[in-house]
Amino acid sequence: MASNRSKLFYFFLRLINKKRFLKRQFSLGRFDFFTCPKPPSEVFASCRVTETRLNGQSVFTLTPQQNGSDKHILYLHGGAYVMGFVKQHWRFLALLVEQLKCTITAPDYPLAPKFTYSESFAMVVPLYKELVAKVGTGNFILMGDSAGGGFALALAQKMREERVAQPDQVILLSPWLDITLTNPDINAIDPLDPFLGIEGLQRAGKAYAGSAQPDHYLLSPVNGPLEGLGKISLFIGSREILAADARKLKQRAESQGIHLNYYEYEEMFHVWMLLNLPESRKARRQIMELIRGGSIP
């Protein structure tokens, strides 16, 4: 059962009709109302931040102030493939750097509707190859939230197809695994989801796909190969429409004898782990323990 604080936040999301925000952004043609393109000043208290350019886009690297570990995370942010970083992303990444002394590379990859998945992969694939060659597979982790979670899994699948070394782990936070949103199980969850609207997401997915088939694994990695990937861990809330495809991925993995660390939080909503709720803190502890390579409490 969700905590009282989470229940209050759930009702707040309903009160402001958060489900309709993405659809409204499309009607206005603007997707930057809530974004934070660069790390805010608070991040610099615990991290060193460097910014480089790749394919005309920014790549941010966050490192600890001192005594860094060998762990390196390639983090792909969420935002339905149309929105950039928000403050919650930077705070979450800074916390990981501060607590784990790891290094995080976070690309500001090309976004729809200006770009499609082709440009996003054209930027991130060479970055991935550079990092895995530099860091080595044992200390390299691929992670993402929401659309970035789907992107992360699709990237791992593409690297498998290209016979490029896999990361040690693939950690997916409320991942968007199928941009078509045609899983019939979504219909039962939709009335409970206070955050994600099907119509807005489908429009974003079509913009990201361009002329490509939306069920292709690079766009909908729930349909892609699971064998031969790094260790997969997935966090999802039961009140997310994305839980339908998270459960589908879990079932596919089980049917193929592939282990998947699956954490479904009862009554939780989209990307709760980036917030400051009791369940958020618990999930972050679990995520950090995964990164350390220990057992999950």
List keywords for this structure.
297 residues; 9 helices; globular; alpha/beta
Any overview of this molecule?
The chain is an alpha/beta fold and 297 residues long. It has helices at residues 4-15, 21-28, 87-100, 117-135, 147-161, 186-189, 198-209, 243-255, 278-292, and strands at residues 47-54, 57-64, 72-76, 103-107, 140-145, 169-173, 231-237, 260-265. The protein has an eight-stranded mixed beta sheet, with helices on both faces. Helix 2 (21-28) crosses helix 7. It is globular and about 45 Å long.
- How would you state the average pLDDT, rounded? 96
**Percent range for β-strand residues:** 15-25%
The 3D shape can be described as globular
Rounded radius of gyration (Å): 18 Å
Query: With helices defined by DSSP (H or I, 4 residues minimum), what is the helix count?
Result: 9
What summary fits the major beta sheet? 8 strands, mixed
Q: Element order, helices and strands? A: HHEEEHEHEHEHHEHEH
Percent helix, as a range, is 25-40%
| Order of the strands making up the biggest sheet | 1-2-4-3-5-6-7-8
What would you call the structural class?
alpha/beta
Number of strands: 8
How far apart the termini lie comes to 18 Å
Give start-end ranges of low-pLDDT stretches.
none
